[in-house]
Amino acid sequence: MSGGAGLEDGVRLTVRLFGDLRKYLPKGQELLELELPEGATPAFVLEQLGIHPGEVWLVRANRQVIADGSPLHDGDDVEIFEPIGGG
Questions:
Q1: pLDDT given at position 9
Q2: Can you name the residues that pair with 14 across neighbouring β-strands?
Q3: Least CB-packed of 1, 14, 45, 54 within 10 Å?
Q4: Closest C-alpha among 79, 78, 76 to residue 11
């Protein structure tokens, strides 16, 4: 289905990557628009983008921290953050 108000049996997400994770974005892009199967999780998003889970500190959907196995919903704004070092 294309051009409709939503997806049948799927979810449309906006994904933003922060820090060094931006290397997984196509050159010149600041975010991704993804269409994934219904029931997709943050772990599935990482897999689709080729990001190893060890590179990720936390994932938020609509500004709320979520677990790797939490289902994502159509229209979610997903933010993926790398671990931050300091001292």
A1: 81
A2: 33, 77
A3: 54
A4: 76
- Residue 18 CB contacts under 8 Å (≥ 6 apart), including other chains: 79, 80, 81, 82
Per-residue tokens: 31: 């975010």
Query: Bridge-partner residues for 33, per DSSP?
Result: 14
At CA 54, angle to CA 85 and CA 84, rounded to 5?
A: 15
DSSP string, 15-50: EEE-GGGGGGSPTT-S-EEEEEETT--HHHHHHHHT
Which secondary-structure segment (H or E) carries 61?
A: strand 58-61
Helix then strand count (H, E) for the chain reads 1, 5
Give mean pLDDT in consecutive 10-residue pieces for the chain, a chain of 87 residues. 55 96 94 96 97 96 96 98 81
Q: What pLDDT is recorded for position 86? A: 67
